[in-house]
TrEMBL record:
Organism expressing this protein natively: Halomonas binhaiensis
Lineage: Bacteria, Pseudomonadati, Pseudomonadota, Gammaproteobacteria, Oceanospirillales
Source species, domain of life: Bacteria
Name of the protein this chain belongs to: AAA family ATPase
Length: 179
């Protein structure tokens, strides 16, 4: 099975994808790991897309987490399921703020080998704030995924929209039971 977990930054995509991958005994692929270089530099799309395609082709099944809408032609080419973590605005905002505080406090490296860490200044007082990004993109992400769910070119894909933590828990249990 090939699954892409999508949703606004801070919605819980990576956590859900990890848990789903574990429940299904599939590899978990985090797009941010493939995308980010040290010092918050982004890989050029050509390199990013090549590495993404290589990772996806390396296994007959996987759980991929991440949006990177421009990569849809690669990641949705042979996908079976898109799981959309679509929690409400206030829930998502609460989660992204909580996560930013924890990460800034712990100074944990976000992606191995990059040295990239969140700081209080970056998270709360910067134009590059993940919190600000989440606020700005929440509505447009919802519109994009609602549109994709009804787009004829994606009719081969099963979409699951999760609107709460309890729905997510039930979904993981049902997928694990069918594995």
């Amino acid at each position: 099975m090939k699954i892409n977990v999508v949703g606004t930054s801070g919605s819980g995509k990576t956590t859900l994808a990890r848990r789903l991958a574990q429940a299904l005994s599939l590899p978990h692929i985090e797009m941010d790991v493939l995308h980010w270089l040290p010092d918050w530099q982004e890989k050029p799309d050509e390199q990013f897309f090549a590495e993404l395609a290589s990772m996806l082709e390396a296994s007959p099944g996987w759980v991929l987490d991440g949006n990177y809408d421009r990569s849809r032609p690669i990641k949705w080419r042979e996908i079976d399921l898109v799981v959309w973590v679509d929690y409400g605005f206030w829930q998502t905002l609460f989660q992204v703020v909580s996560r930013a505080i924890k990460r800034a406090w712990s100074k944990q490296e976000l992606w191995p080998g990059t040295g990239n860490r969140e700081s209080f200044r970056q998270s709360f007082f910067s134009r590059d704030s993940i919190i600000l990004w989440s606020i700005k993109t929440w509505r447009s992400n919802r519109a994009r995924y609602l549109s994709a769910m009804h787009d004829e070119q994606y009719r081969h894909i099963r979409f699951v929209q999760l609107r709460s933590h309890s729905e997510a828990e039930a979904f993981i249990r049902s997928m694990a039971g069918n594995a």
